[in-house]
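Many introductory courses stop at the sequence. We go one step further.
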Amino acid sequence: MSREVILREVGLRDGLQSVSTFVDTADKMEWIRREATAGVSEIEVTSYVPPKLLPQFVDAEAVTTESLRIPGLTVASLVPNSRGAQRGIELGVHKINFVMSVSETHNMKNVRRSREESLADFRNMVELARAQPQAQRPILCGGLATALGCSYEGQVPVSDVVRYAVALVEAGADELIIPDTVGYANPALVRKVFKAVLAEVGDLPVAAHFHDTRGTGLANLLAALDCGVRAFDASLGGLGGCPFAPGATGNIVMEDAAYMLESMGIDTGIDLLALLEVRSVLQRALPDAPLYGGLPRAGLPRGFVPARQALAA
């Protein structure tokens, strides 16, 4: 049976990039394997960036290679430039998540170049990917960081978001993702931005990435769901935050997002009890890191029935 909504784990990348403690490769792989077993079908396992910038990803090659051995798992990685994309292609990663910022200031601080330079580099990535045999060609996902607000520039014009979304599509993106990088969004803004983007990109898949910095993460997810979005990033325990965006705390909690959707009768394909057990890996590997989540705290309510089971009844 197919899932109605896909929840994609980004804690291995977005979560760990802000953690100073290096998490051993074995612990990362246990996290990945156990989440895949729990039903999480897509995981952003690492980022291909120089280790001197983010030492947490010094084991990017090993994590990618081992993750690709997990049956049924879509293995994704974040890349900021074509050099990282080339590395991902060589390793055989299934999906390459490219990121640029709609905010010029954030893009300069994050990847040290202008938006137009990032866009030009994405065109190079497309050429690299299309030069591969069809069976080895990764999915290219174009990401627009700060699409819903920027810690440096404040409000971001919707027209800019649409302009760069269309530019990524015209360059050859297979998918888009619209992130609320710094947690500025509210449901009304989410509806405004996503409706504007969806109206311009046709049937191209558009995913969402929300942070819960100000407590609106799950509400924003529901707003995007109402617009027709069916793929969302989340992080186990709510780990995450952008190191180049002051005050940007964790992603929406994977456990809470999965529970909310399942309790609404929306099939995510995730076994919630198995997912909750994966937290022990983080508790052991990062004993000082705060982990969030209402479901882990309160547990499943009496009589809870997963969406797939309810649909089959």
